[in-house]
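Hi R.,

Here's the chain you asked about this morning:
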Amino acid sequence: MIARRPRGRSGPGAGRGPRRRGAARAAFLLARAWAFLWASPWTFLGLVVALLMRAAGGHLRWTQGALEASPRRFRPGRRCPFAALTLGHVVIGVDRAALTRLRRHERVHVRQYERWGPLFVPLYLLASAWAWCRGRHPYLDNPFEIAARRDE
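And the predicted structure, written out as tokens:
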């Protein structure tokens, strides 16, 4: 006589059926929705800037969970204090090459916005001011920038 496997959920793989995967997927989607909502005040500002750039002939691209925006043409003679700037889930770059080069760094900032939400910019500025008050560089010694460079 051939031994039959019991019909219950036991042994390897038990509990990983469609119902559990569906619940995990739902939890993941809920967490992602919350992250977008939590960062949305700054994302909204970034969208306004990105759409203005697009209206002026700039480029928009959705990649790796963020909208990247760059102007049609950046005049190298103009001094710009940054090569890329993140506002929520929008990354503004001086050109597409800068966005490509800095993508990993800027995605760390996107995750920081997802964690800190509307508090991120005030905390970032406070961290820069604190570094400056201690005689350090407000950008290079900012803990948010250190984390972004470390995770690049």
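The first helix runs from residue 18 to 38.

Let me know if you need anything else.
M.
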